[in-house]
Every structure is written in C-alpha cells, then in structure tokens.
Backbone:
C-alpha cells in the first residue's frame, strides 16, 4: 500500500504563525539539535506491535511506515502581525528565552507572508500584514502564488498545510455556497459573502495539490465542497480542532464511565487562559465555534439513546475565561457528577494545569508527517484514521465520529500496519488458546 518514499524537503505551511505554530517550529529545531526527546509525538516516540504477542516484535512507528525525517522539515506561513517566528515565540511566552535562542536562526528565517484576513471572522486582532487582494478569487490566486514561492524558496519537493490561525466567529454550519464544489467555485467567482479566510486557504492549498489539516474549530474542509475537491484531486484532508488538553482528558474518562456503566448526571468544564487564543475566544461569536467542537464529544461517546437511564439527561457546560496573567499556562477544571449502584452520587474533580502550546506542538509534528504520508500513498478525502488528533474529528457524511482516544489510537495503528503490509491487530487473542486464526490478537 505504500506508494512513494519521502524524498527531499517537506514544507509545512501554516496560516497563523502564533503560539502553537512557533512552539512547534522551535521545538522541532531544538529536538533536531538534540536538546530534548520528542516528547508527545507518536511519530517520533510511538511504537506498534507487529504480529502475535508471542512474536515479540514491536517497531517504532517511523520505522513501520516511511515518514519524512524531521531533519527534512522546512517551514513557512502567513499572519496578520508581520513578525518573524522568533519575535512571536518571544512575545508568546511559551518557551524560555534560552529555548527561543537555541532555535533562533531558524525562527528568524520564518517570516509570515501577508494574511488573507477578514475582520468579520476574527475581530480582536490588529491586522498589519494583510494581503492587498480585494476579491476572493484574487486572494486565492495570491495564496497559490505564495505556496509556489514557498516551495521554491524552501527547496521543498512537497508541502502540507496545517491551519493554526485564530478561531473564527461562528456563521452556521451549512450554506448553499459550500454545498458542492461547483457552488463554491461560483461563490468565489462572485465574491459572495460568508466565505471565510480559512476556506480560502484550504481552497488554495488543495488547488496547489497540498494536503490540508485543520487544527482549529473553523469550518473549512469539513464542508461538502472541499471533500469533493479533495477526492477529485486525490488529496488527504483532516480536522478539526487539535485535541490537546481538557478534551483529551474527556475522551479518556468518558469511555471509562461508559465501560463500567456508571451514570453521568453532569460535566462542568471551565478554563482560564491568558494567551492570544484566549483573547480571541473572549469574543462570544468565536467562542461559539470552540464550544461546538468541545461539546459534541460526550454525546457521541456516551450514546444517550442507547443508555437513557445513564446518560439521558446530562448537564454539560463548557466555558473558557480570558485571564491574561495566566498566559499560555491554561488551567482547566472539570467537575463530573457520576452515579453508581442504586443511583448513589459521586464526584470526580480534574484540575489540569497545562501548557496549551506545549501540548499542541507534537500533534502538529505528527499531523504534518502523517498528512504527507497519506498524500504520497494517494489516500484521498477525509483521513478518519487521524481522528486521534482532533476534538471534532471529520467523518463521512452520516457516520458518527469516533471520539474515544484509545479506539482512535487502535484505528491509527491498524491503518499504519495495513499500510506497511502487516495484519491489523484485533485483540481477540484466541490463537493463544488453541484456535489458530489468521489475524493477530
Ligand atoms: N493550543 C492548543 O492547545 C490548541 C488546541 C486546539 C486548537 N487550538 C487552536 O489553534 C489556533 C492557534 O492557537 P494559538 O494558541 O497559536 O493562537 P495564537 O493567537 O497565538 O495564534 C494564532 C495566530 O493566527 C493569526 N491569524 C489570525 N487570523 C489570521 C488569518 N486570517 N491568516 C493568518 N493568520 C491569522 C493571529 O495573528 C495569530 O498570530 C487557535 O484557533 C486555537 O483555538 C489550539
């Protein structure tokens, strides 16, 4: 199933050169220099068992499938601020000055190109570095030229686009303009309202033959027009919204309650966050986009229709408060009201003192490498096997997304096994007890 090997440089192009993007770039450079192990990255540290448990064969994921080497990653992006990545990393306050200095040469070379921006979609930013194009069609053309220029200037054989810009305001999930590729093409030509910058970046990327992964809650490739385009151009797409902190914990805990058939009466999740992401999310219209990706998780995991007595009446609240002193060091609290035998109530409290961009950066690294592999393998359309990375994973129309982190991991590893020509692992294990099955358990 593996079609081509990664040869030459891979350009990772990121609309939104903010805290997440610069922490990813700086971290990659520091890891290349040996300053740290690539903690949090499945592609760099993860392993997969091959064959039966008795075979004793476990391989590193980047040995199982041909992934680009992190030494071959080069970076580019777009942003409204006009700073280089070193300036952004210093002001974002995620990394120490020593860490930023350690990656300084690379960071200074990553200069954001002028952004395709629309204040209607991201309101709380001062936009100084904006693409002068006026119409949607001109903006798409400018972005396509930028992609070609980046590939040439970075001497890259391939590119992936990883969308890491600010969360856009919510404008409804469906519109006529995005209902099909033909409708979207017409809407772009007509400069129709309701088309967001995220959609224009995604459109430009796919037209340039570049896979697109969406790390934010913004609507983009999770719309029929883009799914059609990705399939037509034989390109992978994935999204949306990186599953880094509170939702990652939620998709670990909720499956445990369901597995034990413990009831859930309520789940109250709140956060304080003081970075620029928090400032943008302080706009209720932008928070609405985030709320949708954060809230859907429990409904799908707990299947209230199947278990009405346990999960039929959950009160699920999610809040994010912008609190500047905390910077990137987000603090999340979860209070979970559960019920056990005879309906007796219990409570669980989770207090996660995390670092938002530190959790997100390795996910960016993995997504860049996996999306590149998917493109080389000519895997087209939605890459459901990458659900592991997203709060609100994209799935085929009519199919509910898989949110359980461990089912997602199993799906991901089995996809890699199959891509490598190995048997998927079922965890049945009957062959160890005398029944010889052709599949490994
Ligand atoms: N940090 C996490 O753990 C995490 C998890 C999931 C999702 N996200 C999402 O990732 C995104 C980035 O987060 P961050 O902490 O880096 O935020 P950030 O504010 O530091 O970075 C976002 C950058 O996007 C830029 N931007 C805004 N509109 C743009 C446009 N039209 N074109 C190009 N650039 C534009 C901003 O100027 C800013 O520099 C946010 O949408 C956030 O919600 C972050």
Residues:
């Amino acid at each position: 199933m593996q079609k081509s090997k990664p040869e030459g440089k891979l350009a990772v192009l990121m609309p939104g050169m903010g805290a997440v993007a610069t922490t990813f770039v700086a971290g990659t450079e520091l890891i290349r220099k040996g300053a740290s192990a690539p903690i949090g990255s499945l592609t760099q540290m993860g392993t997969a068992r091959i064959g039966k448990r008795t075979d004793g064969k476990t391989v590193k994921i980047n040995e199982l499938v041909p992934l680009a080497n992190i030494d071959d990653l080069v970076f580019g992006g777009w942003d409204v601020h006009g700073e280089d990545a070193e300036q952004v990393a210093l002001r974002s306050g995620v990394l120490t000055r020593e860490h930023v200095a350690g990656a300084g040469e690379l960071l200074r070379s990553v200069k954001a190109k002028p952004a395709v921006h629309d204040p209607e979609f991201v309101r709380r930013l001062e936009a100084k570095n904006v693409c002068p194009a006026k119409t949607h069609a001109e903006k798409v053309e400018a972005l396509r030229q930028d992609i070609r220029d980046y590939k040439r200037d970075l001497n890259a054989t391939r590119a992936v686009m990883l969308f890491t810009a600010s969360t856009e305001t919510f404008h409804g999930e469906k519109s006529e303009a995005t209902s099909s590729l033909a409708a979207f093409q017409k809407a772009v030509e007509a400069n129709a309202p309701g088309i967001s910058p995220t959609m224009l970046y995604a459109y430009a990327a796919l037209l340039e033959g570049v896979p697109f992964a969406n790390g934010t809650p913004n609507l983009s490739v999770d719309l029929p027009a883009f799914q059609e385009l990705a399939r037509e151009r034989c390109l992978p797409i994935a999204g949306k919204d990186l599953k880094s902190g509170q939702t990652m914990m939620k998709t670990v805990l909720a499956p445990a309650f369901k597995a034990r058939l413990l009831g859930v009466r309520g789940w109250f999740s709140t956060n304080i966050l003081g970075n620029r992401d928090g400032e943008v999310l302080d706009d209720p219209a932008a928070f609405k986009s985030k709320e949708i990706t954060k809230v859907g998780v429990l409904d799908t995991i707990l299947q209230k229709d199947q278990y009405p007595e346990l999960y039929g009446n959950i009160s699920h609240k999610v809040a994010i408060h912008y609190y500047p002193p905390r910077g990137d060091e987000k603090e999340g609290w979860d209070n979970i009201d559960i019920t056990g035998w005879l309906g007796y109530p219990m409570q669980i409290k989770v207090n996660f003192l995390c670092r938002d961009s530190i959790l997100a950066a390795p996910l960016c690294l993995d997504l860049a490498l996996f999306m590149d592999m998917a493109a080389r393998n000519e895997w087209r359309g939605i890459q459901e096997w990458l659900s592991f990375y997203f709060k609100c994973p994209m799935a085929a129309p009519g199919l509910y997304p898989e949110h359980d982190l461990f089912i997602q991991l199993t799906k991901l590893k089995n996809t890699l096994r199959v891509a490598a020509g190995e048997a998927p692992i079922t965890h049945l294990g009957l062959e160890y007890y005398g029944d010889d099955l052709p599949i490994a358990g």
